[in-house]
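Moderator note: this is an archived Q&A kept for reference. The question asked for a predicted structure of one protein chain; the sequence and the answer are reproduced below.
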Amino acid sequence: MSEVSSEIPGSIDETMALMANEGYVADRSLATVLYLSLKMGRPLFLEGEAGVGKTEIAKVLSRGLNRPLIRLQCYEGLDISSAVYEWNYAAQMIEIRMMEAGGNVDQKLLEEGVFSEKFLIKRPLLQALEGEPGRAPILLIDELDRTDEAFEAFLLEILSDFQITIPELGTIKAKEPPIVIITTNRTREIHDALKRRCLYHWLDYPDGARELAILNAKVPGAGGVLSEEIVGFVQKLRQQNLFKSPGVAETIDWATALIELDKIAIDPQTISDTIGVLLKYQDDIAKIDQSEGKRLLDEVRSDLKAGQAA
């Protein structure tokens, strides 16, 4: 097996090929902005509904470019100690006691001893600055909208210069900036100042043809008829007035579940029994009862017949 190159693609077509080789079916607009992000060294800001494949793009780049993936999963209350660094206080206290027991009580030596890199716990943002030239990691800042504005402002400073200042050690600057992918599900607006430092792309639900291609790549065991019915049904669901429409991830999960049940086609009872794979809210599930599921399935089959006739 040939070694995967860590060099960034040289064109949009090469970018699409890299993603296709890793099983990601991208349209040209996504491949274009990803290529430009890599070439210009700018973070890529991906916005869209949950489950449309934003996080997967960082994983694809990590595999395709043979570079480490460093993921910062955002959440409410995320702070510097969890995102950047913190000191191992317990180990520092042991070191101080050992130095005092050895008679070494010089204040300067104490500080130099305990505030050294061996006591530094490196969190994702600091880890991302330590990649070697040509092997800079992929930094995934996932679901940024879950954090507060204070952390967003701190992140803005890091993305501007790709450096972090640790008072006890000084400034740590990346030898080569990491490839940064930022995702958000748009539960709140991200400040324009951060967006201006990024290239932006809205990742929408795929159309039927692209979702079928994704399903064929991810779940090749599903037969042609089953795959077409699955995609058609999910596309119909997204047209309903639901609190949370199923994403591509749910489409893949549903196809996998139906294969496990040895289904070669969909029927209303199976829809009723497995709807919880697609929909995650009870109000949505209640809307798609067995009769509604049958109605949507009939529409899907009618559309498929019309397409075959054409």
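Archived answer notes: DSSP finds 15 helices and nine strands in the chain.
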